[in-house]
Amino acid sequence: MKFLIVCLHFLIGFSNAAHLAKIFKNGMVLQSNPTTAVIWGWQEGNPDDWPPVYLTADCENEDGMFKINKRFISKKSDGDKWNFKVPNAEGTKCDFIISQDGINLELKDVMYGDVWVCSGQSNMQWNMGSIFNASEEIVNMKNYPGIRMYQVKMMQSQNPQDDLMHEDWKSWANTSESVFVSAFSAVCLLTARYMADVLGKNKIFGLIESNWGGTIIEAWMPKEPLDACNIEPWTNEDPNNPNSNSVLYNAMIHPLIRVSIKGALWYQGESNSNWNQNKYQCAFPAMILEWRKIWNSFTPTSDSFPFGFMQLSTIDASNLTNANPNIPVIRWHQTADYGFVPNKAMENVFMGVAADTYDEESGIHPRNKQLTSRRLATSGLNVAYGMTEFPRNGPFPEAWNFAHLETGIQVDILYDKTFSWNPVEVEGFSYCCSNSIDYCNEVIGAWVKLPEKSVSNEEKTLSMIIPSCAVGLAYLWETTPVLGTKALPLYADDMFELPGAPWIKEVGPL
Fold it and tell me: Do residues 204 and 114 touch, judged by C-beta distance below 8 A?
């Protein structure tokens, strides 16, 4: 009889009991100060009968032990959700208990640090077990005990979901768990690791991986930026194909927007080289702005949180001869047609260049994620962590000068920083003679490489002569500009050796 009473009390109590959103699990990371962390969930039953929700915590940091006690009383404006703002300094460790109507939820071994969401398509999905020196890299991750990981299951929805619908990972993992490290995004994990090499190997990172290979950017965008960029509504007729507008945002991003974060990392664009290519320069910045707006509206996350992306890598060597402009155009559009970030359209954004990581065996998924992740981390330390001794970009043109000669057009390019010039494979420059730049980027083979030894350099300047018919000049305007690793002709002349990124310039009337 006593057992029956206890069970009935549990069942009755459960009708009013709070429960946590699925992302909240033992061993997780909450965003540290100055951004306030949030713990949230739902309550069931009749709203008129909802009792208060209580949060208590036993915490510890370098100053010692302390407690947190909070109470949440529901209002109609809260709907069925409750939330607690729980700010704390990085390195703080807490065990939480959330209780309502006699039912307790435990959230143990929670650390405070920087939470990053890593998203995109297959090159972000490419895991640690598939990179060069995978076994060694996986073992090395044990030296970074502050990094914890959670992988979101691939799923889609026609409507925004407040919580994750399904899960593969039932818990957050740490870097001593090799099976989970091996399965986790290499770019996401390595970028955090390289940042930790500078910020401290005990730096606390919470990494949330949410990606799906072969997907278009439109699937990761809510309705507002799609409309702003005049992107037509699109629903894929194959229910197993995630390439429909908003379906991945709805299922794999929207459930995370009530979690305070430090920033986001992104690696995507290959699938847009033949899909709404001419709208990517609008879609990508618009997506970033909308993600920031939404996260800020639901949490104390900054409305300008740092956003890092990997510029598209190489695909295959055949593009060395046919000069297909599809991938170069997307690389350009990834920067909102500036060629560098941050810029006026993409503030507080940073990137890594990957055009010199050709991998014959692995094709569109170069296994050398270490080199490019280190570059992404380098620029991220500047933009996200204010460490100005780290560069944001490699050398980029500061000014172009075009002069008409009898032999053609003299071009002098002044760069914004000193560089090393070593054209072992290519000099990297192409011109196009046509009616317009747009036509040049629509026709395979319209871009023509300058002959070897056409470029001369002096201090921060490169000079060349291009044909009088040229309407455009471009640098690295090929899917695979070089076959060798770190074999581009132009790198910064400093310890970081960031490569010069691709660019395109209209010659215009003389």
Answer: yes
Contact 465/408 with Cβ under 8 angstroms? yes
Q: How far apart are CA 69 and CA 225, in angstroms?
A: 40
Kindly list the distances between the CA atom of residue 124 and the CA atoms of 175, 212, 350, 419, in Å, as whole numbers in the listed order.
18, 8, 16, 30
CB 263 within 8 A of CB 253: no
Phi, psi of 72 (to 5 degrees): -120, 120
pTM recorded for the entire structure: 0.95
pLDDT in tens, 236-261: 888 889 999 999 999 999 999 999 99
Token pair listed for 208: 């949330």
Radius of gyration (Cα) for the chain, nearest Å? 25
Residue written as token pair 């949330």: 208
Q: Please give the structure tokens belonging to residue 171.
A: 């818990």
Nearest CA-CA partner of 473 in 510, 506, 428? 506
Number of Cβ atoms within 10 Å of the Cβ of 243: 19
For the record, the structure tokens of 421 come out as 């010039």
Residue pair 1/267 in contact by the 8 Å Cβ criterion: no
Domains and CATH numbers, the chain: 23-111 (2.60.40.3390), 112-383 (3.40.50.1110), 397-506 (no CATH)
